[in-house]
Fold:
Amino acid sequence: MVPLLLFSGISAVLLQTTVFQYLPWIPDLLLILCVYLGIYHRSVGGAAGAFFLGYGLDSCSGVPVGMNAFAMSLVFAVVAAVSRRLWLNNPLSVLSLVLLAVVLKTSAFLFLGEFGELTEVLQPMVARYVMWDATVAMVLTPLIFPLLYRGEPIDYRV
Amino acid sequence: MQRLLRRYRVILSCGFFLLLSLVLAAVNVRAPYQLDPVGVLLLEMMHPLQVGATAVGRRAEHLWARYVALWDVRAQNEALHKRLEELEGMAYRAQELDLANQRLERILALREALGTAAVAAQVIGRSTVAWVQTVILDKGERHGITKGMAVLAPEGVVGQVMSVGPRTTRVLLISDPNSGVDALVQRSRVRGIAAGTIDGECILKYVQRGDEVQVGDQVVTSGLDGIFPKGQPIGTVARVGTKDSRMFQDVEVMLSAELSKVEEVLVVSPGVTRAGE
Structure:
C-alpha cells in the first residue's frame, strides 16, 4: 500500500502545483489524501505521510515551509482521533470529516498567518476560497476514496 | 516506558510532527525558507516531474483554448446571428414603415390634388386566377365607397369599383379584359379606350389609322366617361402596330401603375376632375 500512497501523494503534489493551476480553482487532493490516511492509516507512517505531504506541497508551491505541513499534520491528528472513536465507513461521515478537514486547514492557515502578520493577506483569500475548497473536496472524495481503498491489501479492508 | 511509547506512538508521532511543522512554519512565515532542511532536495527531486506536468498542463490548456473553448465561440456566434436577425428584422420593419409613409404621402398629395373627398384604402387581396384582374380593398360602403367609383394610385389609374360590401370593395383592374377607360394621347389628343387584355396588359382601342400615336406618348384619362378624373396617367405607349386589313391601329400601353405591386389606393367619386383643370 505504501507505494500506492507514495505515488498518490507525489501525483497530488504535482497536479496541484502544475496542471490544476489552469483550473478556476485548485482541488485539494492532498487534503483528501490526508483524511484518508487519518481514517485508514492511524499509524506513525500515516502521521509522517501527512507531514511530508504538506511539506512537499510547501516546497513545491512557494508557500512558507511548514504551513501546509502543520495544517496536514493537524488534519491527520484530528481525523485519526475522531475515526478512532467513531465508525466512519459510510460516505456521509467521511464527507463530514472532509468538511471538518477544510475548516481545520483554513483555521491552521489563519493561525499561522498571525505569526507572519499574514492575516490581512490570508483572510480575504480564505473567505473567497474556503467554500469552494470544501465543495470541491467533498465532490472529489467519493471518487478518490474508493480508488485508494481498492489498493489496500484485502486483509486490511474492513 | 517502552510499552507506553508503543501504546501512544501514534499520538506521540502526531505531536512530534505538529511541533516540528509548527516550528518550521513559525520561522518561515516571518522569513521564508530560513529553515527548510529538505525542501531543496524535495524540489530537486520533483523538478523534472513538475517540468513534464507543466508542459502537459500547458498543452491541455492550449487544447482547451483552441478547440474546446470554441464551443463558447459557437454559442456566441449563434447569439450574434440571432441578434443580427433581430436587427435585420427591425431594419426591415423600419424600411417598410418608411416606404409605407412615402406611399401614403403620395396618396395624400393625390387626394389634395383631386380637390375632393376621396377614400384612401389598402389592397388586402388579389385575384388568384390570371384571367380575372381584380383586387380587394379594406374599405367599403361604410366608408362611402359606391359601385362605379374610380380607383387611383399616385402613379396612375388602377381600376374601377365593381362591387361593394359593407367593409370591402372589389376593384376591376384596368388590365382586365372587361375594363374600359376613356383615354387620350396627351401629346396629340387622340382619343381611344384603354382596355385590358387576356394577358393582363393594356391596349388603346379604336385609334384610327391616320391618328398620330408614337411610342413613348403618354396616355391619360379623358374625363369624358364621367368616372375617372381628367388627366390621370394611364401609361405610356409601348408599341404601335398597323395592319393593312384593319381599320384601327394596335396600340399597346405600358401601365403607369404597377398593378401587381400597388398597396394603397384612392377611391374617387365619379365626375371628379383634377384640381386646377
